[in-house]
Amino acid sequence: MAATAFWLLLAALVLISAALYNGFPLVTSDSGTYLNSATHLTVPDDRPITYGLWVLLTGAHKTLWLVVFAQGLLLAGLLWRCTAVFAPRLRQPASRLALVAGMAWLTGVSWYCSQLMPDIFTAIGLLALALVLLGRPARLEQGLLLLLLLVAGCMHSSNLLTFTLTVAGVGVVGWLQGLFRRQVLHRPAWLRALAVVLASWLALPALHAGMGGQFEISRASSAFLMARLSESGVLEQYLQQACGPENQYQLCAFRDQLPNDAITFMWDANSPLNKTGGWNANREEYTTIIRQIATSPRYYPLLISETIQATLRQLTHIGHGDGLTAFRENTNPYWKVNEYAPYELKEYMSSLQNRSQLDFTSLNERTYGGHLLALLVLGGLLFGAWRAHLEATSVLLVVVFGLGIFSNALVTGALANVLDRLQGRVAWLLPWAAFLLVAQHGPALWQRLRSALTGAA
Q: Transmembrane region positions (predicted)?
């Protein structure tokens, strides 16, 4: 047990190496909101309070280093367990650590694990889901994994839909391929995972209500959806037809001045949203417009077209550095770091991020090259002559991760923004699957290849 804890500690340090290199945990413009909810235990209008509770629990209102270290330790435990289940050939702890370190170097997962953001919990939830469905865990381990899946689902509102689509997709694949009937995929485990994912849709609003908020996922959801409709051009088309003497929305005054992108619509001080009082003031109007668009078939072709292209675009946005700019004096992260952990403010200000000295050029080159190589490796293994030598669980692992990555791109691209940060947080799971398959099956496949070449010679 002590030896395992030692190796997990090393793996956790590898997974937060970006924070260690930076000199402080990384922040984005949203980090201040989460730190504020941790300090004051208030439910944000536009974010779940769940990550704020995580910060409070792990940081103990003393240090933000423990927050990212806890994230690293949690992720390390899941990756370690994945190695034991899907690459049991790697029995030596040093080999498992090398696998994690190689994946971290190639993909840059550490840059997400090291952030004071809930983004890493999307991947954590998908890892827990894969272990529940394919790992055949004992009862206690399964209970802990399901609890982790529930918590990860409540960390970010997009996770609710991403996990639901992933579990549903696995069920469809299992039914079409007869995997339930052949006991390759256990129906009870899938049903438990489905029940937990569906329960998270109630658990999050219940948590908000218990913390003094309303029984709802987010008060700003209508504003985010309206911003996305504005970016896609659907809102402009709707207003051109709907605005008139008998139907005057506040947005009608801005129908020829709608921003080009969702971020400007949401956050710019001169956007129609903020000029008319913000999301709370516009909630009723936006909800009405969204409902009318959603129930009008005339907009369906454009909505479908926008959803497809946004999903495909999001799948390619896997770079690092998105949002990791300097946040010095007079910024929300600065104020909230000072409020939560004032003795760490000097570290925060002297970090590479806040001195604008972070460069992601070489990392992004590795990332895109690594993902392309992973696609080639997985394609060769799954669709080549070696497919018959793979275990069913190895194939299903790629299916679960693939569905999770696609679902994340669909949800975030179609309903929020096409951003590197939103897809890069889960895209690294694809190379991780390739690492596991090569570690488990690579030596045997290499021997077969050598034998075939020797025979041919």
A: 63-82, 94-114, 120-137, 144-177, 189-209, 372-389, 395-419, 426-446
Residue burial 115-139, b: 16+ Cβ < 10 Å; e: rest: bbbbbbbbbbbbbbbbbbbbbebee
456 in a structural domain: no
Q: Where among 316, 342, 374 does a domain terminate?
A: 316
Q: Are residues 181 and 308 in the same domain?
A: no
What 3-state DSSP class applies to 238? helix
Q: CA-CA-CA-CA torsion for 90, 96, 101, 104, nearest 10 degrees?
A: 80
pLDDT in tens, 289-343: 999 999 999 999 999 999 999 999 999 999 999 999 999 999 999 999 999 999 9
User: What is the token pair recorded at 218?
Assistant: 């987010």
Q: Is residue 96 part of a domain?
A: yes
Range of the domain at 411: 2-216+325-450
More confident residue, 385 or 428: 428
Same domain (yes/no): 7, 128: yes
Question: How far are the Cα atoms of 41, 43, 46, 200 from residue 212, in angstroms, in the given order?
Answer: 9, 7, 15, 19
In this structure, of 217-226, 241-250, 253-262, the range with the lowest mean pLDDT score is 241-250
| Neighbour count for residue 293 (Cβ, 10 Å) | 21
How far apart CA 422 and CA 189 sit, in angstroms, is 28
Residues 172 and 212 in one domain: yes
DSSP string, 198-236: HHHHHHHHHHHHHTTS-SSS-TTHHHHHHHHHHHHTHHH
Q: Are residues 206 and 135 in the same domain?
A: yes
Task: Examine the domain organization and report whether 232 and 211 are in the same domain.
Answer: no
Closest Cα partner for 363 from 169, 152, 188, 108? 108
Res. 248 pLDDT band, cuts 50 70 90:
confident
Same domain for 35 and 170, yes or no, is yes
What is the tens place of the pLDDT at every residue in 11-65? 999 999 999 999 999 999 999 999 999 999 999 988 999 999 999 999 988 999 9
Residue 124 lies in a domain: yes
Rounded Cα distance between 297 and 294, Å, is 8
State the sign of the Cα–Cα–Cα–Cα dihedral 104, 107, 110, 112: negative
Shared-domain flag, residues 191 and 332: yes
The domain boundary residue, chosen from 248, 282, 316: 316
Q: What pLDDT, on the 0 to 100 scale, is given for residue 307?
A: 95
Beta bridge mates, 115: 26
Dihedral sign, Cα of residue 213, residue 217, residue 222, residue 224: positive
Q: Which two tokens stand for residue 222?
A: 């209508």
User: Residue 83 class from Cβ within 10 Å (0-12 exposed, 13-18 middle, 19+ buried)?
Assistant: buried
